[in-house]
Amino acid sequence: MENKYDFGLVGLGVMGRNFILNVADNGFTAFGNDIDTEKVNALITEGGDTAKVNASTDIKDFTTALSTPRKIMLLVPSGKVVDIVIENLLPHLEDGDIIIDGGNSFYTDTDRRDAYLKDKGINFFGAGVSGGAKGARRGPSIMPGGNKEAYQHVKPIFEAVSAKYNGDPCVAYLGPKSAGNYVKMVHNGIEYGLMQLTSEIYDVLKKGGDFSNDELHTAYAKWNQGRLQSFLVEITSEIFEQEDDLTDGRLVDQILDKAKQKGTGKWTSQNAMDLGIPIPSIDIAVSMREISALKKERITADELYNRPKVTHMDKEQLEKLTEQALYFSFIITYAQGLHQLADASKEYGYELDIAVIAKIWRAGCIIRAGLLADITEAFKADKDLPNLLLSPTFVEKVQRTVQAARIVVAYGATNGIPLPGLSNSLTYFDAYTSARLPLNLIQAQRDYFGSHTYERLDREGIFHTEWEKS
Length: 470
Prior knowledge:
By secondary structure, the chain is α/β, with parallel strands linked by helices. The protein folds into three domains: 7-177, NAD(P)-binding Rossmann-like Domain (Rossmann fold, 3-Layer(aba) Sandwich), CATH 3.40.50.720; 184-432, N-(1-d-carboxylethyl)-l-norvaline Dehydrogenase, domain 2 (Orthogonal Bundle); 438-470, Up-down Bundle (Single alpha-helices involved in coiled-coils or other helix-helix interfaces), CATH 1.20.5. It has 20 helices and nine strands. A seven-stranded mixed β-sheet has the order 3-2-1-4-5-6-7, with helices on both faces. Strand 5 (98-101), helix 5 and strand 6 form a beta-alpha-beta unit. The longest helix is centred in the C-terminal third of the chain and has 34 residues, at 315-348.
């Protein structure tokens, strides 16, 4: 094969096909590989010019077609499939070649593969890709981590295909080893939180204000023009307009209220607990998807208990309050996720720059939002900022909206409308901003039953008391 292609991609499903076509559209030649002949042929047909885009089911033909160092991206299901593809590629690779895992692999798997391939002279990258199938085609946010020197070979391609925010590419080298996959994992955790919050506000408007789908569309569309501008608020406004092909109503009203998940939110929560970082807004978003799966039990329980009769609130007042509450809880959710990233960076040696991460999330990805521009500036001003809530800019934003969150949470509790994401965000805020918490009692209890000791406010040292009276 005479032509040498700039970029290779294994896995020509919707994401892979769209990504490789994006590469070709941006001035780089690309060669794909898949075991499915139909997917190979579909790419060749859509590409239109095999000098720019070509593909094969044969792994040797695929690797032979690529210029060196080979830059091969994998867009295949995470887990064992990634390892199988790597083993299939290895006999056909040379020292210095680059393999990029673009899937949602667990970060410890990336560390294992990085060490394994380093011994064989191959550079390995875990690169989170966010934006879905459309993002892959039009420009995703890309989060690569691995060998910094090797990244220079990939950088021109990734910068060309990534989303742009005011001309800036939404991709940057994030750090060594599994830094990229770890950042994408937390990105997805934040995504879980934001989605849960958006759905809770919908529930309040619908039950507490009797908002129609048209009114919901209008409210979310208006919010998307203001400080809540974001991909998730935008698509939510559009969802309320979608007609159902099978009935006379709107599609959203016919969708079963059981939310599924692929595990990245759960990974974020589990790892945060390992690190000792509180992320309750994300934790509860994972739990709510699990509760939603208990549909039959929920129906039975609904019949067993008397639920409060919802007292309707004035629509204009409710819309104003919920906009503020949603903005408040969005800030809290980002604060939690970024706190986890900062701590993990120290624990795992990633050397993450939080300002850079916020910057590459401003376009292309699912959690893109206008708020990220302010977050970027906050961490530029103080790269060691331990928590977004300590930024002077965000103190003002939170102060102006927290009271609305209190009112909405209280309204939900009184009227039996579950608002766990919003209430957890408020509780986190109240706890984080409290100089004194009642955990002194817990320490006393631990010392009482288990002699676990305690510290004192008035002097240094570790203390123990014999609490039981003889």
